[in-house]
Amino acid sequence: QPKPEGEHKPFKAYEPGYVHVDVKYLPQMHDEDKRRYVFVAIDRATRWVFIDIKQHKTAASAKAFLAAVRKAAAFKIHTILTDNGKEFTDRLFGSRTRQPSGEHEFDQLCQALGIEHRLTKPKTPQTNGMVERFNGRRSQVLRSHHFNSAEDLEKTLHRFVWLYNH
To answer: How many domains does the chain have?
Structure first.
């Protein structure tokens, strides 16, 4: 049944601390011997963004990223939403039931810190749409610039995030 004209469902209000996280490849620069990864966090309430560039897309990198986000955030993180990548969960790779075991390093760190770790439905990136939209903007910036080095690319990304946050 259609809603009467002018009737809108209100957006749910969130407190700061519900953070969407994703990881993307960065283009390999001529002065690099392999690609790097950009870990991205965006707070659902404040839209604050934090990035960190890592050499590897591993659970250890994800844990280090979480530590860096917690240190940089002006609020307490209570919930993290990630996809089902191996760096975040064993849901699709270590379990026949397709449920996280709770034994994954990232899950254990979240639990130890009192952070609820939520997972998107498999193959539905739109569930994590907030960080996906930011990554789309970030990709546009990378495509619209020529970078002379990995350092040049990294400086541009950090400047983009600084401008986005201010």
So the answer is: 1
